[in-house]
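Title: Prediction job returns without error message
Component: structure pipeline
Severity: low
Priority: P3
Assignee: unassigned

Description:
Job completed but the reporter wants confirmation the result is attached to the right record. Sequence as submitted:
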Amino acid sequence: MILSDRDIKRAITDGRIKVDPLPDFSNTLGPCSLDFRLGNELRIFEYTKHPVIDPAQKELFDKISRPINIPDGENFIIHPGELIIASTTEWLELSDSLIGRLEGRSSLGRIGVVVHSTAARFDPGWRGRPVLELGNLGRIPVALKPGMRICSFTFEELSSPAEVVYHKKLGAKYVNQDKPEASRLADEL
């Protein structure tokens, strides 16, 4: 069952959902969702330095992209066909009986910006700063600004609490991530 606005507020009050900093519900809470904002740290890909991404080359993952910091008040221009890794301003923690679903915002989708390519589910026990896979599917560059509402989260109740939550799962690759990190796919190969 998807939580309503009143259930999201109650889950935050009860500590089943932790969001830091606490959201301003007057402009971030929808009927069944909570908006998160774009953080200052991004990871951009070094397209011209590497002709191919080979998931088996673990050492390559930190070389194919680099972190950048966008100061408050400045824009980052995402170009057509570009993929960047970003994180939200907010830190999120989920209880053992809730999942979060990262959703795009229609206002951004209508100008070509998508906020995730595959990683939309945040498992019970998730702890960290949500990471976004931002892409520009349009034909015109788009300016993004730190602090802008970039995505929405919906929350769903599990039929029972999970036995092994994400932050206790053996091999959980992104526990307590605090910034956009390079892929850890090579850890699986």
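Comment from assignee: result matches the submitted record. The domain at 5-182 is CATH 2.70.40.10 (Deoxyuridine 5'-Triphosphate Nucleotidohydrolase; Chain A).
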